[in-house]
Amino acid sequence: MLATLRDEVLRANLELSRRGLALFTFGNASAIARNEGLVVIKPSGVPYDRMRAEDLVITDLDGQIVEGTMRPSSDLPTHLVLYRAFPALGGVVHTHSHYATVWAQAGREIPCMGTTHADYFHGPVPITEPMTSEEIASRYEENTGHAIVRRFCELDPMAMSAVLVVGHASFCWGPTVTDAVETASLLETVARMAYDTAALNPQASPISSALLDKHFLRKHGKNAYYGQPKSV
Ligand SMILES: [Zn+2]
User: Fold this and answer.
1) CB-CB neighbours of 176 under 10 Å
2) Ion ligand 1 residue ranges (Cβ < 5 Å)
3) Which residues does 179 contact at the CB level (< 8 Å), separation at least 6?
4) Which of 25, 62, 81, 124 would suit a FRET pair with 70, their CA atoms being 20 to 30 Å apart?
């Protein structure tokens, strides 16, 4: 079932490890087959060097296992909330990559300090509000998803394809799981640049909205002109 998507999700998970974004068994990637309403996700606690396509788990949007013998990633409920809330998402990635996690632990959004950031994220990378004791005690992973969705009530998830969960780490997404891995990689790069910028000059200011818009919109949206036309 969903053999092609299964392979893509396996490759995405292995790529997280290969790029140093997912240490130990932290991190997980999933993809959704929208027509079938099925999600393919990493199994829980399986080391990346031993993971095979048949180890991945397929569930429905309620988290019921449709195919697979292993338990799905414990973060599955977070992925499901995001897929239900944001219909444009095709893939979701969660990592504890170092610098993005440092910002999450510091409780700070990642300010847009330069055009590297602006090329991919339309503004500061947002951070969620802390969860209540009740939200943590019961349905924690699902409530993590709800905290992200609440943070996006006035944000476009396709213009801002990453979020920091305060005290935890990042979630990234995209039209495909391969895109989501790329976003996780870019997020780590801009998180590191912003950290070093703040270290070198604590008074450095984020770039202007004119420069932010210029760089983001020349690559994304209906008037994008960066790179080659799709037909080339
Ligand atoms: Zn985590």
Assistant:
1) 17
2) 169
3) 90, 91, 161
4) 81
Q: How confident is the model at residue 232 (pLDDT cuts 50, 70, 90)?
A: very low
Q: Write the single-letter amino acid at 43.
A: P
CA of 26 to the centre of ligand 1 (A): 6
Asked if residue 127 lies in contact with residue 107, where contact means CB atoms within 8 angstroms, the answer is yes
Do 206 and 111 touch, CB atoms closer than 8 A?
yes
**From the CA of 96, how far away is ligand 1's center (Å)?**
6
119 catalytic, yes or no?
Answer: yes
Q: Which pLDDT score is estimated for 184?
A: 98
- Selected catalytic residue, list 7, 60, 156, 226: 226
Between CA 81 and CA 149 the distance in angstroms is: 8
Token pair in block for residue 39? 């999600």
Distance, in Å, from the CA atom of 15 to the CA atom of 11, rounded to the nearest integer, reads: 6
CB 160 within 8 A of CB 123: yes
Q: What percent of the chain has pLDDT over 90?
A: 89
- To the nearest 10°, the Cα dihedral for 109, 145, 180, 190? 10
pLDDT in tens, 104-126: 999 999 999 999 999 999 999 99
Which two structure tokens, joined as six digits, stand for 180?
């989501």
- DSSP symbols for 142-179: HHHHHHHHHHTTTS-TTT--EEEPTTS-EEEEESSHHH
Exactly one of 55, 119, 140, 213 is catalytic; name it.
Answer: 119
Q: Which strand (E) or helix (H) includes residue 172?
A: strand 170-174
| 93: nearest Cα among 34, 27, 153, 23 | 27
